[in-house]
Design brief:
The chain is an alpha+beta fold. It has four domains: 155 residues, ibrinogen binding protein from staphylococcus aureus domain (ibrinogen binding protein from staphylococcus aureus fold); 105 residues, no CATH class; 118 residues, Helix Hairpins (Orthogonal Bundle), CATH 1.10.287; 121 residues, no CATH class. Helix content is 38%, strand content 20%. It is built from 13 helices and 23 strands. A nine-stranded antiparallel beta sheet has the order 4-3-2-1-5-6-7-8-9. Strand 3 and strand 4 form a beta hairpin. Helix 4 packs across helix 5, helix 7 runs parallel beside helix 10 and helix 8 runs antiparallel to helix 9. The radius of gyration is 36 Å and the shape is elongated. The protein starts with a helix and ends with a strand. About 2% of the residues have low confidence. Associates with stalled 50S ribosomal subunits. Binds to RqcP. Belongs to the NEMF family. One of its GO terms (molecular function) is rRNA binding.
Length: 585
């Protein structure tokens, strides 16, 4: 993880500068793992986030606000009881371990000064936040562990002890002789030797040490080479930990955060980067975007699951109706049987046989045909039974055909959402898709889930906007609501509308401004239509285009559904990406 002991050491200095001698004004616990302390100092209030999230444990100052629960969790209430109004007097780190201790001075009910600590252990899934008294007796912890659950119980009243896994050497204090012994006793890679034996060293930092030492061998025995690594390690630690020479840097890839560190890492030269004036602002942006991305992925997966489940149900329903239509092919046979029994009734006698042989008046040669009978019914009743079977199958066929027409519309709608979901890049895109699914009752609304009036945030995304090589504006819908807006409200009658032929996808509009659109612009718009559709990365994709005045939306149809005429078709190969298109931010 990027938040190693070296980064924590550099961050500690910023936290000391910003928070020490400040007063705790407010305390919140916005979720199961996170505590927010609002500390007032020198006329301003800073929010300290401490999170023991198993996936993203962290501590930093952030200006961003979060929604807090109406009823504070028990741990939050205990923190408030013990620390509200307390003075934050010190912040300490256990060597270069990812353990931070925050010291507070409070007053007892009798007015005596008391010392209490928040101890934050940043250790992946074992991360925890403790509140302890001056004797290091646990008052409470955000995650409790009983005697049965752990050899190191975490319960109120139990003495706080350091985690038993702290057996690595402090890299600041390690001697060269000890350092050499690490390499002599292991055949692992140099990076793994560093992380296995030294505390507070992440994989990223270890890679940086090796890279700056210009060591490229995987197995080391030469002490001169080991010395270069040792010197590189000590120099980096001296600059970051001792002198505080940092350059907080955030690394991204295709808009998503990859990593951050207290210095600009040479091992990350391939990634776009952004420098920050301090570590807190760098860490804040990293975790904000990380959380946004996590929320985005989780919501997209949820919506994808909803869409896939409904497509599967509809597909099964479609097949069932196809089967009913296949079965209805026997209807004419049953009607024929009924007609022939009645037509031959005057010359037939009741029989105990399970069939009757009659003249087939429908055949050219008037041959005979055997008709199955039910023995407990007379001939007339058997004829009536065949007529009933005929009527039943014909009604089922008629109903199945209506059902199939509706199912096809629903499938087209869901498949269009599926295509749009695949192209979604922002949380607002997903919220619009979610809104469509709610309106069509594929998922419950927030009001139904909460049992109260739904309060939807007013987060609206804008359509994609491109400028063609000829200078024409091209707009692409991000969701079906936008598709309707672009086509039915935004575009003028002489703008050009494009859509993949019989393939779910976005509506594309070329703003003509009553000018003739060049072929190059038309092709570029068709390429965008193919890219933002289910035909992504396909070859020979048919894209229909026509003037907007020829596009109509039938009443009571689902969002994004339209009909059109007077169209032409252009064939394009869908692009792998749209990096070369001139997109307006």
């Amino acid at each position: 993880m990027p938040f190693d002991g070296v980064v924590l050491s550099a961050l500690k200095k910023e936290l000391i500068s910003e928070l020490v001698d400040g007063k705790v004004e407010r305390i919140y616990q916005p979720n199961q793992f996170e505590v927010n302390l609002y500390v007032y100092k020198f006329g301003s209030t800073k929010k300290l986030i401490i999170s023991a999230n198993p996936s993203l444990p962290r501590i930093y100052i952030s200006p961003r606000q979060k929604k807090n629960p109406e009823v504070a969790p028990n741990f939050c209430m205990i923190l408030r009881k013990n620390l509200l109004g307390a003075r934050l007097v010190g912040i300490y780190q256990e060597g270069l371990e990812r353990i931070l201790k925050i010291e507070f001075e409070t007053k007892s009910e009798l007015g005596d000064i008391e010392t209490k600590y928040i101890i934050f252990e940043m250790m992946g899934r074992h991360s925890n936040i403790f509140l302890v008294d001056s004797n290091y007796k646990i008052i409470d912890a955000i995650k409790r562990l009983s005697f049965e659950d752990s050899p190191r119980p975490i319960l109120p009243g139990v003495k706080y002890t350091l985690p038993p896994v702290l057996t690595k050497k402090n890299p600041i204090e390690v001697s060269f002789e000890e350092f050499v012994s690490f390499f002599k006793s292991s055949n692992k890679s140099p990076e793994n030797i560093l992380t296995d034996n030294l505390s507070g060293i992440s994989k990223q930092f270890a890679n940086e040490v090796i890279l700056r030492a210009q060591v490229f061998e995987k197995s080391l025995e030469n002490e001169d080479t080991i010395k270069r690594i040792f010197d590189s390690l000590k120099e980096l630690l001296y600059c970051i930990v001792e002198k505080g020479e940092i350059l907080p840097t955030l690394y991204t890839e295709k808009g998503n955060v990859v990593d951050f560190y207290a210095i600009d890492l040479k091992c990350y030269t391939a990634y776009p980067k952004k420098h920050f004036p301090n570590l807190n602002s760098c860490i804040d942006e990293y975790y904000f975007k990380k959380e946004q991305y996590t929320v985005f992925i989780e919501k997209r997966q949820h919506l994808q699951k909803v869409i896939e489940q409904n497509i599967k149900k509809l597909s099964q329903k479609y097949e069932q109706n196809i089967q009913k239509i296949q079965e209805a092919k026997n209807a004419e046979v049953y009607r024929k049987y009924g007609d022939l029994i009645l037509a031959n009734l005057y010359q037939l006698r009741e029989t105990n046989e399970d069939f009757v042989e009659v003249i087939d008046y429908y055949s050219e040669d008037l041959s005979t045909i055997k008709i199955p009978l039910e023995k407990d019914k007379d001939l007339k009743q058997n004829a009536e039974r065949y007529y009933k079977l005929y009527n039943k199958l014909k009604k089922a066929e008629e109903y199945a055909k209506c059902e199939i027409a509706e199912i096809e519309k629903e499938l087209e709608f869901l498949q269009s959402l599926e295509a749009l979901l695949e192209k979604s890049q922002e949380i607002e895109d997903l919220l619009s898709i979610e809104e469509e699914l709610e309106k069509e009752s594929y998922i419950k609304t927030q009001a139904e889930n909460a049992g109260q009036q739904k309060k939807k945030e007013n987060q609206k995304s804008k359509p994609h906007h491109f400028i063609s090589s000829d200078g024409f504006d091209i707009y692409v819908g991000r969701n079906n609501l936008q598709n309707d807006f672009l086509t039915l409200r935004f575009a003028s009658s002489h703008d050009i509308w494009l859509h993949t032929q019989k393939i779910p996808g976005s509506h594309v509009i070329i703003r003509t401004n009553n000018k003739e659109v060049p072929q190059t612009t038309l092709i570029e718009a068709a390429l965008l239509a193919s890219y933002f559709s289910k035909a992504k990365h396909s070859t020979k994709v048919p894209v229909d285009y026509t003037f907007v005045k020829y596009v109509k939306k039938p009443p009571k149809t689902k969002p994004g559904f339209v009909i059109y005429d007077n169209f032409k078709t252009i064939i394009v190969d869908s692009p792998e990406n749209i990096d070369n298109f001139n997109k307006v931010e």
